[in-house]
Each structure stands twice: as C-alpha cells, then as structure tokens.
Specification:
Blueprint (H helix, E strand, L loop, with lengths): L1 H21 L9 H19 L6 H23 L1 H8 L3 E5 L2 E2 L1 H7 L3 H10 L8 E6 L5 E5 L22 E5 L2 E2 L1 H7 L3 H9 L8 E6 L5 E5 L5
C-alpha cells in the first residue's frame, strides 16, 4: 500500500511538471498536438498508478519523451510558419458582415446549430450583428460585432461608427502574412513604405496589425538595436 501511495505522489508531481514545461496553453485551449500529448501523458500516469508491476521508469521515460517532442515541435513552429499551418491549420472566417460562408462551414463540417450555439455562448443571438466570426485553430469561435451592436461605453463616439472591419495580423515575429495584405487591400510596396517611415524592415517587427482603413499598430522586437 505504501509503495502505491509513493508511486501515485511521484506520478502526480511528474504530470504537473510535464504540463508546466509544455506551457500555460495546456491549461487553456489545446491544439491537436497538445491534446494528443495530454491524453497520452494521462494514460501513462493512470496505467502506472493502477498497475504496480509496471516499473516507475517505464512511465517516467515515455512522459519525458512526449514532453521533449512537444517542446521541440513548439520551437519549430515558432521558427517556421509552414510547420504551424501543417500542424495547427489556419483560422477560418465563417461569417462576414452577417452572412455565413456556407462553403467554409461545410469544409469544417459545422452545422447551422453549431455556429448558432457558439454565437449564443458569446452573447450574440442575431447573426446580422456579426461583422466577422473566425473559427480558431483550437476550434473556438471568435466574434467581432459590428459597431452599432456593441455595448455602448463612454469611449465610443460617432466618429468611429464605420469601424466594422477588425484589424488582422500583418506581420508576425518578422514574417509577413500575405492574406492580411489582401484583406487590407495593400501591397508589399505600401508595407515597405510604411515601415520605412519608422526606419524598420519586416524582420524588426514583432507584431503589426492593420485594418481595411489602413489603420495600423506596430510593436518592434525587443533588443533589436
């Protein structure tokens, strides 16, 4: 009994350490690879607790290998947008200006009930209020309401009444997102000229967002100078 108790305590702290190493996102929204690792780690831990005949190292080593693979994959994803798209996929826009993109919905194998439920969970009951809705790679729906449907606040004024198009990421960690250039109706020359005014090039930018009105926000990489 004491051996089983000690094994359980060891595995308990081992799994906590594994989740901490993999990052805080493990405790929030899981990407496909993260979900797989989490399930495998929990199964390994359960088997070791239930069967005392399994050597403790027979659990520790597989968990160490899985966590190492996840950390390495995260590193490659940071360095390669192509790897990120291959593993996680891309966010998908399913609603534009109150109109559902039926082709995207079929591609995601979502039903009208699925998207309606997600909208209601976000406090939106009328789809005509939605300027844009995006299915994230985690499977959650992010909703951007049009201006007239947002809760009124002191900061809101009539001069912003046309801002129904959300800003999108144009540069991510020095890498240009071509889809956002098309979304904003700009080209590389506009981007180069805009950055040039601040004496920047894309590799100097940590994140840049822009909307269809070409209003942008730039955050430089730390320690670039």
């Amino acid at each position: 009994m004491s051996v089983a108790f000690i094994r359980t305590i060891i595995i308990y702290f081992l799994v906590i350490a594994a989740l901490r190493i993999m990052g805080k996102r493990q405790l929030g929204e899981l990407q496909p690879s993260e979900l797989v690792v989490t399930i495998l780690v929990s199964n390994l831990a359960t088997m070791s607790i239930e069967d005392s005949n399994i050597p403790l190292m027979g659990t520790v080593m597989p968990i160490f290998v899985l966590v190492s693979c996840e950390v390495l994959l995260s590193y490659f994803i940071l360095k390669s947008p192509m790897t990120q798209k291959l593993i996680f996929g891309n966010p998908r826009i399913v609603v534009r200006n109150g109109v559902i993109d039926q082709k995207e919905l079929r591609s995601l194998r979502w039903t009208v009930e699925d998207i309606s439920e997600q909208l209601r969970a976000g406090g939106v009951f009328d789809i005509s209020e939605v300027s844009m809705a995006i299915v994230e790679t985690s499977g959650n729906l992010s909703v951007y309401q049009n201006y007239r449907s947002r809760p009124m606040s002191i900061e809101m004024d009539e001069t912003r009444s046309g801002e129904d198009d959300p800003p999108m990421v144009m540069i991510s960690d020095g890498k240009i997102v071509e889809d956002t250039l098309n979304y904003c109706g700009v080209d590389r020359k506009w981007l180069d000229d805009t950055l040039g005014q601040k004496q920047l090039v894309p590799k100097d930018v940590f994140i840049m967002t822009c909307n269809k009105k070409r209003s942008y926000t730039i955050m430089e990489k730390e320690g670039r100078k």
